[in-house]
UniProtKB/TrEMBL annotation:
PANTHER family: FERREDOXIN-2, MITOCHONDRIAL (PTHR23426:SF65), FERREDOXIN/ADRENODOXIN (PTHR23426). Residues 1-104 form the 2Fe-2S ferredoxin-type domain. This is Ferredoxin. Keywords: 2Fe-2S, Iron, Iron-sulfur, Metal-binding. One of its GO terms (molecular function) is metal ion binding.
Length: 105
């Protein structure tokens, strides 16, 4: 399942991950800028914040209430914000695009 990360300056990185992995997992492993994932994926740090591309927002779906609350700690929370550790790769997300924030926290 391919995911493209786009930075605020427009640098795009496309990575291939396995079904069941999180977007944070693959981004962090590859060293994508500003995908920090301090808590290791337990929705407890908000340093994996991303903005889901408008074309993908419906398919990715909304955050849980807890995730949405945790996003209060993220820099620049918006309606399209998600914790990337809470987005699990599945076949329907092939080609997913997320935008990384200016900074985390
Ligand atoms: Fe900590 Fe996602 S990795 S909230």
């Amino acid at each position: 399942v391919h995911v493209t990360f786009i930075t605020p300056s427009g640098v795009a990185t496309t990575l291939d991950g396995d079904v069941g992995q999180s977007v944070m997992d693959i981004g962090k492993r590859a060293g994508v800028e500003n995908i920090i994932g301090e808590c290791g994926g337990s929705a407890a740090c908000a340093t994996c914040h991303v903005h889901v591309d408008p074309a993908w927002i419906d398919l990715v779906g909304p955050p849980s209430d807890d995730e949405w609350d945790m996003l209060d700690f993220a820099h620049g929370k918006r309606a399209d914000s998600r914790l990337s550790c809470q987005i699990r790769l599945r076949p329907a997300l092939e080609g997913l695009i997320v935008h990384t924030p200016e900074r985390q926290g």
